[in-house]
Amino acid sequence: DGGITQSPKYLFRKEGQNVTLSCEQNLNHDAMYWYRQDPGQGLRLIYYSQIVNDFQKGDIAEGYSVSREKKESFPLTVTSAQKNPTAFYLCASTALRSDTEAFFGQGTRLTVV
Amino acid sequence: AQKVTQAQTEISVVEKEDVTLDCVYETRDTTYYLFWYKQPPSGELVFLIRRNSFDEQNEISGRYSWNFQKSTSSFNFTITASQVVDSAVYFCALRKIQGAQKLVFGQGTRLTINP
Q: Which single residue of A15, A92, B34, B43 could bond A107 by disulfide (Cβ 3.0 to 4.6 Å)?
């Protein structure tokens, strides 16, 4: 079955630690995205990538980093510079044509302990 | 700048009632797409509908219907004869037609259908 797989489902981070969230898709989509969801707020865009080895900052990129070495994979690293990382993180992918919708993974819930 | 507002934070109704979720948007673009997504407790966003700004026809899909009114910048979603399985958080979103497919989301409406 085609889809997006995010792992882990739950992640705990200690203060000052970097953690990496995994996102893999087998939909053959060119574009991938990372969104952050906080309680009572909509999703906000962190980073996106439309092609391998290229990515752009979204609205809240500070304290995060990404890489896109393979079409199928778009890992997100939450660095120690992110002051309030506790949130629900969703990965999405789309085909590049305009008349399409984004497909989402099941998310990773990150908690700082 | 683009903005989407879902003023209803939470809605609770009894099963079989009809319920409407409101969505108001702002954009300077003349062409754009509007979306509704459902987020069940499992967490992933499930696509419900995409609407092109050129097409103002209302759409019905089973118990779901959407009312798009460009004059008032609204894209409301109605569930008829609600069921417990409709309980979820619903998001309205907007994006440009050209360029990167970055979605701008509303705050979401948590819908609870009580048996």
A: B43
